[in-house]
Amino acid sequence: FDIPELSEVLDTCLACKGCLSECPSNVDMTKLRSEILQQKYDRHGTPLRSWMVARMAKMEELGAMVRLFYNFFATWKPSSWVIKKIVRFSTERSIPALSRYSMKALVKKEQAQYRIARPIKKVYLFADEFTNHQEAELGLTFAKLLMRLGYKVEIPKHVESGRAAISKGCLKLAKKYAIKNVELLADKVSESHPLIGIEPSCILSFRDEYPDLVPDEMREKAKELSRNCLLFDEFIMKEVAEGNISSDDFKELQGEIYLHGHCHQKSLIGVGKCAEMLRLISGAKVNVIPSGCCGMAGSFGYEKEHYEISLAIGEMVLFPTVRKA
Predict the structure, then answer these.
(1) In the chain, helix, strand, coil percent, each to 5?
(2) Predicted local distance difference test score (pLDDT) of residue 110
């Protein structure tokens, strides 16, 4: 695997998994790429940028303890420029700041204030590493939605999904996260108490990568768990089919919605259910943007040598559609 030509070809792999659904051979190049990178790191060591990106969630956890300092250094131009130079990120990109409170903390506070007398069922919410610290308000909004629809929401004990480690080829690290999550969640999560995810690449790791990452003796447990891990739109439409949710539960909205699906979502489950879910809102016109990848593809769009390519990818369909809208 350690040949320059292979590295050159895989350098512009977006890890979007488009090949898995769009190529007639259905070859998962993303999975092959991760394995090849791990083999390469075993021989030559892990590059600093890959090592840091794979552990970004851990850094954010530590950063959350001193959030003001973290956000200052991440957003202040001189310090931000230095950080980006060290890890070879494009200086044109912004380092994401941390939310004021974590998603876990916000949901816990909401649970204390909002009690449901007779919930439809209890559901588990996965506080993925991106939403938990970078988009906490978004996580709270989804938890509120579930509570207002009559569900008891609980964030179970879990670790990060390992998505960043998988995408950067740090499979030995990702394996540790996969094993830990299967151990923590396999006996809790079931068909009647599913695990619901907000960030597609994180929750879909349970279905796509975990059964391959865990040891043989855990494989059946991982597969059983994966069957009950649902993306937000899958859960909503499943409950619609069961008669627990209907369009009457939502206010009318006169307006247009433009939907750009996540790459892993498009490749592994499609965006059909997401569009159906949005059409539950009467009055809303839903337009599915026929786009491929947005160009960011995890850390790809941040990386100095890939910045121009990432913009070109976004300009193919997505950016012009957004500007036109």
Answers:
(1) 60, 10, 35
(2) 95
Q: What is the dihedral of CA 74, 77, 83, 84, to 10 degrees?
A: 110
**pLDDT, tens only, 1-55:** 888 898 899 999 999 888 988 889 989 999 999 999 999 999 999 999 999 999 9
Which residues of the chain have a pLDDT value below 50?
A: none
Q: What is the pLDDT of residue 125?
A: 98
The predicted pLDDT at position 107 comes to: 97
The single-letter DSSP state of residue 303 is B
Residue 4: both structure tokens together: 């320059």
User: Among candidates 73, 46, 47, which has minimal Cα distance to 59?
Assistant: 73
Q: Give the pLDDT of residue 304.
A: 96
Contacts of 83 (CB under 8 A, 6+ apart): 73, 74, 89, 95
**How distant, in Å, are the alpha carbons of 82, 92, 94, 305, 308 from that of 77?**
9, 11, 9, 21, 21
Q: Are 282 and 250 contacting, i.e. CB atoms less than 8 angstroms apart?
A: yes
Classify burial at 83, counting beta carbons within 10 Å of its beta carbon; exposed 0-12, middle 13-18, buried 19 or more.
Answer: middle
Are 197 and 160 in contact by the 8 Å Cβ rule? The answer is no
Residue 21 pairs in a beta bridge with none
Which strands make up the sheet holding 229-231, listed edge to edge? 152-154, 122-125, 195-197, 229-231
Model confidence pLDDT, tens digit, residues 99-117: 999 999 999 999 988 888 8
Instruction: Using alpha carbons only, give the angle 153, 157, 162 rounded to the nearest 5 degrees.
Output: 110
